Known about the structure:
Number of strands: 8
Strand order of the largest sheet: 1-2-3-4-5-6-8-7
Structural class: alpha+beta
Shape: globular
Amino acid sequence: MIKELxxxxxxxxxxxxxxxxxxxxxxxxxxxxxxDSDVMRYYDLLPFKSMDEAxxxxxxxxxxxxxxxxxxxxxxLKETKxxxxxxxxxxxSKDDKKAEMGYELNxxxxxxxxxxxxxxxxxxxxxxxxxxxxxxAFIEPPNLASQNLVKKIGFVKEADLREYELCRGSxxxxxxxxxxxxxxxxxx
Length: 188
């Protein structure tokens, strides 16, 4: 059951990463990430212009966890204790046993395998603690880095959805990528 996800200890770690729920004190690092126009190019928010926006984003992630509608992990480097990104799940469907995945990473830490490592950790977590069968990622077609990331992890592109959502003031196309529990288990 999906509700079991929210009753678990949500800290996950690897040799170099510590994933944990977002907290208020993350606002400064969130601002560094969410104010960068390159990071936000394919995001459904405009780049932040103030620290207040970062504080509201931290609150949004924290409220999602409290309300059991979202789990968003902060990606912290163990060596420096710096929050360099976030990743997690939202849009849970109990009946359809699915969730949507989202993520973003500080530009200064891209290309180091951090996000693929973090996503593998959270996929292991969600598939081992819930009955979720399907994880979806909605990615803008020009965002090749994100498409390559999910493909490398095992996601399959299922569709190109034309003018699917209103984003940054325009209707945009979206590519739907998905990973099934059976796909994930095949890698074992």
